[in-house]
């Protein structure tokens, strides 16, 4: 998870976005954390993401939407 956070913080300087789709009924708390909606994502060294580039979507919330 530390390496993933670091990679996302570094990628936040680039013109890109990351979309994570959660499939199944697992606990997606870690993916919600990476989403950065609740707070600014920081790497394990404390560096802050320049912008929120991660969007997490749990598929189960939309599975029955037409």
From TrEMBL:
Name of the protein in its database record: Copine C-terminal domain-containing protein
SUPFAM superfamilies with a match to the protein in the record: vWA-like
Stretches assigned to the Copine C-terminal domain: 1-64
Biological process annotations from GO: cellular response to calcium ion
A molecular-function term among this protein's GO annotations: calcium-dependent phospholipid binding
Signal peptide: none
InterPro entries reported for this sequence: Copine, Copine_C, vWFA_dom_sf
GO cellular component, one term: plasma membrane
